[in-house]
Amino acid sequence: MTTEVEVVDAEVVEGDIVVRPPVAGQAQRYLVTQHTMLGPGELPPLADARPAWTDDDFRLSAEDMAELVEPDLAENTIKNRDSTVRAFEVWCAAQKPPRLVHPCTTATYTC
Question: What is the dihedral of CA 64, 32, 40, 9, to 10 degrees?
């Protein structure tokens, strides 16, 4: 008597969270940056679950560089920006525990 066995490639689901089974001999690598925001019970995304950046994601053209070096802010805009940054720094320092101003995380920015 022979028994047929069906092998199923699946993910374990716990509530709304997808938990991928680890590959034998390979540790799970999560992708966490200053823009990572997690709700209660959420796991960070896996590092291999997103496409890798290419050189084009980091390179600017000569035209873009020329545009960036040109000052294009009015004096009142500079004063407003500086005032806003100082207010944000004071707010971050007043939080319990204090928030890190630079680099600002997306979670801090959205509070």
Answer: 110
